[in-house]
Amino acid sequence: MKIGLLKKVLLLFTFNILVFSTVNAQDAYSKWVVGIGINAVDYFPFLNPTNFIGLDPSTGNQNGIFNEITNAEDHWNISAPSINITRYWKNRISLDVQFSANKITKIGDLVVDEYSYYAFDGNILYSLVNPENYFVPYIYAGGGYTFADKSGGTVNLGIGGKYWFTDKFGFCAQGGFKYNSPDFSLYPHAFYTFGFVMKLSSHNRYMWNSRKRFNWRGGR
Question: pTM for the full model?
Fold first, then answer.
């Protein structure tokens, strides 16, 4: 990962803290979470030359989707930002919307002229443990639309996890598969996000103080 890109992400996270700090101070009980970070697009695991007419076999992958799936140096297009908003619903289920931007320079083993990648996604997340835990692994499914050199709608499937290092701030990592039929123009690809997450307040602002008197939070 480039040092300059990491600095940009840290600056964006710091900006978010400054903007939302007064909101967070109001409440520790929140169903809303915002996140910002980087993303990675990897076409290589799904570029089977037999599925895409005209694809150069030398740029494809004939050994299954788990072949070189972690080869970030050769195959991942890493950029920023990825911005998402998550709303807890019920029964460990959350609703998530996400916007991501990237610059594509690699399709499999092939280096290409740089072009822009923009993705809008909506996913349903299911927590595998109590969402109030410090570490919360989850699975997700949903859909979206990607604008790139070749654009199209996608079906999304994947896994992820959040680790809360304070009551309000944490880190999130997520990886999955974006599928688009070979009959359409967008290549299926692996999509990863890594970033910071932050809880926002939504709790009732009325409360009882220690002397059992009903008051407005912050008042006397």
Answer: 0.78
- State the Cα–Cα distance between residues 11 and 194, nearest whole angstrom: 15
Q: Which residues are CB-contacts of 121 (< 8 A; sequence separation ≥ 6)?
A: 96, 97, 98, 99, 100, 142, 143, 144, 154, 156
Tracing tokens 């979206």 back to the chain, one arrives at 144
In this structure, what token pair is assigned to residue 35? 């996140």
- pLDDT tens per residue, range 119-150: 999 999 999 999 889 999 999 999 999 999 88
Q: Which of these, 159, 165, 160, 86, lies nearest to 133 by C-alpha position? A: 165
Helix/strand/coil for 63:
coil
| Domains of the chain (ranges, CATH numbers) | 3-216 (2.40.160.20)
Q: Could you tell me the two tokens for 218? A: 């912050």
Residue 133's DSSP bridge partners are none
